[in-house]
Amino acid sequence: VVALRVSETRTHKPRTYPARLARVMGLASCFRPRDMSDDTPTKKRKTASTLEANRGIFTADENAMIDKLLGCGQDHLFSSWPAPGTDDDDKRRFLAQAAVCDAGYPGGIAQYVANAKKLLQESKDGVNPFDGWTPAVPDGIVVEYASKEHVELESEGMREVGSAAFVLVAGGLGERLGYSGIKVELPCERSTDSCYLQLYIQSILALQQRSAGEMPAHRSAKDVGIPLAIMTSDDTHAKTLDLLERNDYFGAKKEQVTLIKQEKVPCLTNNDAHLALKDGDPYALQTKPHGHGDVHALLHTSGCLDRWSAAGKKWVVFFQDTNSLVFRVVPGALGVSKQKGFVFNSLCVPRKAKEAIGAITELTHTDGRKMTVNVEYNQLDPLLRATINKDGDVNNDKGVSPFPGNINQLIVSLEEYKAQLAKTGGQIEEFVNPKYKDASKTAFKSPTRLECMMQDYPKSLDASACVGFTVFDNWVGYSPVKNSPADGVGKFEGGNPTHTATSGEMEFYGCAAKVLELAGATMAAPVDFAANGIVVPSGPKVVLHPSFACTFEELKGKAGKGVKVTSASSALIVEGAGVKIESLELDGALVIKACPGAFVTVKDLKVSNKGWRFEKCGADAPEIDRLRGFVIEKDETEELVFDQPGAYTVP
To answer: What is the 3-state secondary structure (H, E, C) of 113-173?
Structure first.
């Protein structure tokens, strides 16, 4: 594991500033950075004189950092600095933080300020980023899960998966969900309490186990496994590392997993791109996340891409932190990338016209430039109205927009990706979104910053690059958990997906049940279940461990027509690559676990017991239960556990 060192921050003792200074700045109790655009030459000379007097206490590197800041117009950062001997440790703390920001941005702070000035001016001028561009539906494939085409694509993808590396974007805490921990530690369902990171790593290990025997293309899978890089942040890095170490990396080799930590970027106080100081601390820059687009630069600078390339890897698969269904569609999507020759493939879902989700769009400029990129929904409709369709974004004869919905699960071709990042340093096109105080656009309500998004990588590619999409239905590939229970109620009342822990758990069970049904099983119909102010379909609680089956064809060969689950309250948990269910009638709860090397055939088994039930919980319940609004009461369970290799038949 590559664990980036987090700089130690000394505790700052607040200083008292003259009341006159506070009045000038419109503040009663805290210090804010001054806008030096109105400073007189006398004041600037005084600042410069005091700063020069401090030079002697700093190292050459610290003085070089001061010069960088002065060189890009950040004199105001030093305007309150006292003479040497006062707050010297705090001054060094400030320069250390500035150095981290400088090192963490391609081109350093000077380039950040230059980019900010340009984007802030364009924002003020109201520049339309799509001026001169005409949209069209890009190249891509809509895949029906379990169809003949899908089975063929999965087979193609499984021949490639041993040559893939995976990247998990996990820089966020669970605060938006109402969860105090990191999101990847949140259980994706309570039947087994498997957390998201556990599910993801076990899915990768299952793919690895099935691809390691392929030679010679997948020799790398046998030698070094399928690698996983996890992008963390200051907020999540230590907790992610701790989660991995406490759980022995969930069965992965330690060297398979690399943590790459994202740094934050400085905030900006005005259109001149003056960097903001923290409220109440003149020796700390105010910083915020730069966006998940930083993952590209981190992969480039960390050496991951070089190592993966040397190990024979050909693909990089990106996925998000709380989408439990993504590995259901990865093999098929990888097959599409191989078949179509995509250097960049966006996994998508069907999208209703004007639905609040970005859309994959081909854009052609009047000067001949062409690119296939994500266009935000509030930009797509006016763009269509202004160019090719006066009605804007409308549904086609299938009831969906022809522009598919982007879900930020991406597949790139490694060699082209590596070469492109070598040219750009991994820098992704940025944007700025200042909140102005008034129509003059001269002052901000609060500091802003530059941001970038991982899906904007194709903007750096030339027109000849083969970029496209793969669409799977939501039920099988997209069930994010990103909203709190309170926000979920608002979504539910508006007729929109809630994307809460409640819906995420039910959709996880529902997906597994529907996959079994498509394989020929008979599954009890779901019933409505109310929790946390929303109503969700609740059918049999089915958990198919990643080790059981990686593709639809494999699952169909292990469980299908002989499986009958007769009640919506039933629970079926299956773990182990060697399990095969020929015939089963279930009304209750059944758990089957088989260790590696154990081959279990379930034949003519009937299980009837009290099973498991959902019980609503109150505000005094543990945090994880409150997020869902229920607990699972396990009244009675039939457990078949095979912890020794061998051949078994049940009953």
So the answer is: HHHHHHHHHHHHHCCCCCCCEEEECCCEEECCCCCHHHHHHHHHHHHHHHHEEEEEECCCE
DSSP string, 409-473: EEEEEHHHHHHHHHHHTT---EEE---BSSTT--SBSS-B-EEE-GGGGGGGS-TTS-EEEEE--
Q: Single out the residue of 334, 336, 267 nearest to residue 120, CA to CA.
A: 267
Residue-wise pLDDT tens digits, 391-423: 999 999 999 999 999 999 999 999 999 999 999
Q: Is residue 605 classed as helix, strand or coil in its secondary structure?
A: strand
Going by DSSP bridges, is the β-strand pair 630-634/612-616 parallel, antiparallel, or unpaired? antiparallel
Beta bridge pairs of residue 571: 541, 589
For residue 500, give the 3-state DSSP assignment.
coil
Contact residues for 462 (Cβ-Cβ < 8 A; gap 6+):
none
Q: Kind and range of the H or E element at 383?
A: helix 377-386
Is residue 135 reached through a cis peptide bond, with omega within 30 degrees of 0 on the bond before it?
no
As a whole number of angstroms, the distance between CA 409 and CA 636 comes to: 39
> For 534-583, how does the pLDDT look when each residue is reduced to its tens digit (9 = 90+)?
999 999 999 999 999 999 999 999 999 999 999 999 999 999 999 999 99
Between 241 and 177, where is the model more confident?
Answer: 241
User: CA–CA distance from 291 to each of 143, 169, 325 (Å)?
Assistant: 30, 10, 23
Other C-beta atoms lying within 10 Å of the C-beta of residue 59: 10
pLDDT band per the 50, 70, 90 thresholds, residue 352:
very high
Per-residue tokens: 353: 């016209």
431: closest CA among 233, 230, 295, 265? 265
What is the C-alpha separation between 469 and 479, in angstroms, rounded?
Answer: 19
**Separation of alpha carbons 304 and 452, rounded Å:** 21
What residues contact residue 419 under an 8 Å CB cut-off, 6+ apart?
none
- For 125-129, which contacts have Cβ atoms below 8 Å and span 24 or more sequence positions? 129/379
Whole-number Å distance between alpha carbons of 375 and 571 = 41
pLDDT, tens digit, for every residue of 447-487?
999 999 999 999 999 989 999 999 999 999 999 999 999 99
